Amino acid sequence: MTGKKYILTSDHFTGEVTFEYNLKGFLKAVKVGEVKGMSKSIFDWLWANLPTSTQMIEEYKKTAGNFKISEVPVDLSFERFWTEYGQKVGKKKMTENAWNKLSQKDKIAALLYIEKLRRTKRQDGTQMPYPSTYLNQKYWEV
Fold this sequence. Notes:
single chain; four-stranded antiparallel sheet; alpha+beta
């Protein structure tokens, strides 16, 4: 069992910064992915305001300005997506390839948006798109 993980993104740079916490809620790792366009002042602000515990995350969200912080679901595997999406239609391998091309940020967004899309489709009486279409057209960005 692992602790919590959060991802920070911003309009000020591309890429993501990940905060990992142990089971007691204390910071155990900060991972800076392939980040482009982050200025020294932004990096300095992030470092000076580093949330060292999960309790600080809510406060951090309030002071983070143009940064977005999201909790990372523990399992970002294709099998989790395939199970949660539920519409097992189309070519599974093609859908898996589309999943593997997504960034961690997009995988999180895709998983979190499934239920909202399902409710919307129920209300307007239309069917869910094929899973590969959902991923390739990035429905969660609409």
